[in-house]
Design goal:
- With about 80 residues, the protein is mostly helical.
- The protein is built from three helices and no strands.
- Helix 2 runs antiparallel to helix 3.
- The model has no long low-confidence stretch (mean pLDDT about 90).
């Protein structure tokens, strides 16, 4: 509970929630909710590609920032 009490923890919580929400929406768009409505292969590919790119970017950006910080760290 102490992690979320600060500004950084609250920001991380909100951004994590938005990532989960975006991921669920993208992945839900690939599923047929009604038997008469079948999603096209283009739509499925676009949604899955969007999910992969979103996840890749949101993993790569903090990793690069952290590595840059470690390189400039004095021992």
């Amino acid at each position: 509970s102490k992690i979320v009490s600060g500004f950084g923890g609250t920001l991380c919580l909100i951004l994590s929630f938005l990532y989960i929400l975006a991921s669920v929406v993208l992945l839900a768009m690939t599923v047929s909710w009604h038997p008469a409505i079948v999603p096209s292969s283009t739509r499925i590919a676009a949604c899955l590609s969007g999910f992969i790119v979103l996840s890749w970017l949101l993993g790569l950006v903090p990793l690069r920032l952290g590595l840059r910080k470690v390189r400039t760290l004095e021992v």
